[in-house]
């Protein structure tokens, strides 16, 4: 009965032009804040969509979290250097795409960065630089080429003991894409999935206007320097201004260069526009590692992708395809 009523309201709402409502919800998932917005005919339909999005993100978190000891990702890590682990096709495909992104970025993006997590802490607890030998040693366990996939058996094997994978730089984007996909498939006309700056939109606001995104300069957070419409695609900003360490006046971001073992320097924020949040998320992280020149050069070669970089001097750098009206 409830189900019938819900369907009726949905159909009725779709016919009644102009009667749309916008609903929001803020939840903590994947260790991050998710701000969800959906446009629906009424509260009941809107809340059902919000519940659906939350269920989907929580499902993905259970699959990919390396903090949850019961996840398939944790099983892969626990079996590093020991045995291949059979996983769901969905996780297998996410790992395949992650490896493709490593190739695309010459290894700047690498989910096997995770074994270095225990030497760098960006929560304020670190008081000195790790010893160079320690950093050098940590890099030995990193390398996407050492992730062995068997697509037929659907297994993942980290070939070296101590290796670890983590989806910190792609998981939120993936979850935002999947939540959007699910809601669209179920008839939600418009919405925004904002995973702490990993943003995905579809449709339009109830008044017919485009969703707008504001880009702020971290050097002056109160003032957006650009505002632009976002249709269909995704925009991701990487650069958690609270998460960095500083030694000898050098600021180290919470993104680590897999080749050197040292955190990226020189950039404080990267915003990437791309057709999917997953791609934008991974590329934003990669640009940090590649640096502004190589980063922009690489972004310029990709169709439908653009970026804005803010360096540690507060200067703004834009890729070729960016056309924004600065305020
Ligand atoms: P944000 O914290 O703003 O979401 P990112 O999307 O760039 O930033 O993700 C940063 C996270 O990605 C780090 O906290 C870490 O978990 C992971 N990471 C760090 N360096 C790399 C790397 N080179 N490749 C892939 N993931 C990384
Ligand atoms: Mg990222």
Task: Describe the 3D structure.
- The structure is a single chain.
- This protein is α+β, with helices and mostly antiparallel strands.
- The chain has helices at residues 2-15, 43-64, 72-78, 89-104, 132-139, 171-185, 277-290, 292-300; strands spanning 21-29, 32-40, 85-86, 147-150, 155-158, 190-195, 198-202, 211-217, 220-230, 234-238, 244-247, 250-253, 267-274, 306-311, 316-318.
- The protein has a single domain (1-327), classed as T-fold (Roll).
- The protein starts with a helix and ends in a 9-residue tail after the last strand.
- Magnesium ion binds next to helix 7.
Number of helices: 8
Classify the fold: give the CATH topology. T-fold
Weakly predicted, low-confidence segments: 1-17
Query: What is the CATH superfamily?
Result: ApbE-like domains
Heteromolecules bound: adenosine-5'-diphosphate, magnesium ion
Question: End-to-end distance, in Å?
Answer: 53 Å
Give the CATH class. Answer: Alpha Beta
Q: In this structure, how is the largest beta sheet organized?
A: 8 strands, antiparallel
Instruction: Kindly report the oligomeric state of this protein.
Output: single chain
């Amino acid at each position: 009965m409830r189900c019938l009523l819900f369907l009726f309201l949905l159909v009725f709402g779709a016919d009644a032009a102009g009667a749309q409502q916008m609903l929001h919800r803020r939840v903590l998932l994947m260790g991050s804040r998710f701000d969800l917005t959906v446009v629906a005919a009424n509260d009941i339909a809107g809340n059902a969509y919000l519940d659906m999005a939350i269920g989907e993100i929580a499902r993905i978190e259970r699959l990919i979290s390396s903090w949850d000891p019961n996840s398939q990702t944790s099983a892969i890590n626990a079996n590093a250097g020991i045995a291949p682990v059979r996983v769901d096709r969905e996780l297998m495909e996410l790992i395949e795409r992650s490896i493709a992104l490593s190739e695309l970025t010459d290894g700047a993006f690498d989910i096997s960065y995770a074994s270095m997590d225990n030497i760098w802490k960006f929560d304020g607890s670190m008081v000195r630089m790790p010893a160079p030998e320690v950093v050098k040693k940590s890099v030995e366990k990193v390398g996407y080429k050492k992730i062995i996939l068997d697509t037929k058996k659907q297994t993942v094997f980290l070939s070296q003991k101590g290796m670890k994978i983590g989806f910190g730089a792609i998981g939120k984007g993936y979850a935002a894409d999947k939540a959007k996909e699910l809601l669209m498939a179920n008839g939600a006309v418009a919405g925004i999935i904002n995973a702490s700056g990993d943003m995905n939109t579809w449709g339009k606001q109830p008044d017919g206007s485009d969703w707008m995104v504001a880009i702020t300069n971290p050097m002056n957070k109160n003032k957006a320097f650009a505002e632009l419409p976002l249709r269909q695609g995704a925009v991701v900003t990487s650069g958690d201004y609270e998460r960095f360490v500083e030694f000898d006046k050098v600021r180290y971001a919470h993104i680590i260069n897999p080749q050197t073992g040292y955190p990226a320097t020189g950039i404080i924020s990267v915003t990437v526009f791309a057709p999917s949040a997953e791609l934008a998320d991974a590329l934003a992280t990669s640009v940090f590692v590649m640096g502004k020149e190589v980063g922009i050069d690489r972004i310029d070669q990709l169709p439908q992708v653009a970026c804005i970089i803010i360096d540690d001097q507060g200067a703004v750098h834009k890729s070729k395809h960016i056309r924004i009206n600065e305020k």
